[in-house]
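Sample entry (284 residues):
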Amino acid sequence: MEASGLEWLLVPMQQLVSWGAAGAMVFGGVVPYIPQYRDIRRTQNAEGFSTYVCLVLLVANILRILFWFGRRFESPLLWQSIIMIITMLLMLKLCTEVRVSNELNIKRRSFAAADSKDEEIKAPPKRSYLGTELLLCSLGLLLDFELNYFWHWSKFTDYVQCVLTFTGVTGYITYLWLDSSLFVETLGFLAVFTEAMLGVPQLYRNYQNRSTEGMSVKMVLMWTSGDTFKTVYFILNQAPFQFSICGLLQVFVDIAILLQVYLYSYYPQKPASHTAHPASTKAL
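Predicted structure, serialized as tokens:
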């Protein structure tokens, strides 16, 4: 009688713990960016935050969603990717607005480089074959596209265009190769490996500046605790092995950034002398 009564109590408790863990997986990943978002909004300065963190997370989570179509994993991990993509777009929107407002004299850069051309040339197009027009347009975009300004664009819509283009291309390739188990497993590895490199842009930016000023230490502490939690979650729930590898690598990178916080706080160093164009010094 006592055993059955205890079981009646334990079953709901286990269910609540399971729901809590799932909720933490879905929303826990975005929590570290709340203090960073508030700091940027308050100070109107985005120099300390690397927008390449947003790029890494966008690529990783788009690939993870595509991986889900080939190998179904737990729904909380899928919803986590959707929530993270929305969060990174919001971070990019804020950082772009702040950077552009602080750099009024910087030449405007765009993903497709079509806006600047439209401003300069307003003449109606000459009559020509459609295929020729498409070819010339594609060549023009490629020739005008500057790799040095990649992910340093002046409008949030350019980032959205880039994300949609990447999603469309990778989605089409995934659709064609979805029946290949080798492709699906490789896709899953690329997704989690990209996510594992999340802290590397911030790590490199801190190294360039010889300082962690402008970076939210709370964000990194939440990265570390969150990555540790989700790594344990992956192992206990027997998620695909790629996820466990991702979690372990992320924890190591987080610890390296925390070591930078300690090193540059107690042993200040002069910034490294290097030349860079104005946009890159703000956007990296």
